[in-house]
Give the backbone structure.
Amino acid sequence: MHYPYSPYPERGKLTLPNNCKIALIVTLNLEHWDMTKDSDKPYYAGGPAILPDALPGNVPDFPNFMWREYGQRVGIWRLFKEFDKIGVPASCTINAKTALERRAIVEAANERGWEILAHNYEQGELLTDHSGDIDSEREVIRNTLDVYEKTFQRPAKGWLSSSLRGTLNTCDLLTENGLLFYCDMMNDDQPYIVDTNNGPIVSIPYSNEINDFTLLTRRGHTTSEFLEIIKEELDVLLEEAIEDGSARIMNLGLHPHVSGRAYRVRAVRNFLEYAKSLAGVSFLRREDIATHYLAEHSKHIPIK
């Protein structure tokens, strides 16, 4: 893969669908974790743990597994309710195993007409586990996309890797399978083109900074602090977009076992209400951004 280094002052103006200033993407990560793995090595479950001491994969880690499963049983339904009340969409990522073993969650997102991205087969199996073995990585991606297509009766358009960890082969394998956009490359506030052996794919950046894992679980911010941080991110991006006439993307990454807790959901509710009230902010699908960008990218960051 290849992508250009593009200093912000050297870019053209970015336009987005609806002629919006900010494309706001609130990502609900609908993930699945195996309770055990056939391994005596420490099991990294593709995200932070509530208890930090990793157990061997073949030993059940009940405190961490149950902490995560709370999101599937309770937290996600609390979040769905908030999005419904405010009348805005989320963009969801799903592991293939979520579709296979937590079907009610996937059906609830699909019935709402929300965008759904492929997100690896199982959250604790990382593409980097297959680094250097392109055929093995290809199999994981293909198996994930097969489950997606059987579940939704349509092919996936975009991909986010578990734990945001892809390989140098990932973009090529995604375009080999006809995908339109890729979200692991979190180095920008705007989309850009990544060249692959099979043609271009659009980078629509996710964020590990504007993310409940980082802000709440890892850094320990309070609910009120979390709300103020994400509001300030939106305010500054909107101010910049108005000032220089070039649109921005803001992605907020949420996990049901973190933001779906009763004492934290206020931050999500208040942020969604605030964002909805702002002129120039649109809740957009990544697919629509990517389709628009493929037609317009030469005016923004030309491929050299």
Remarks:
- Strands lie at 22-30, 91-94, 115-118, 158-159, 181-182, 192-196, 199-203, 248-254, 281-283.
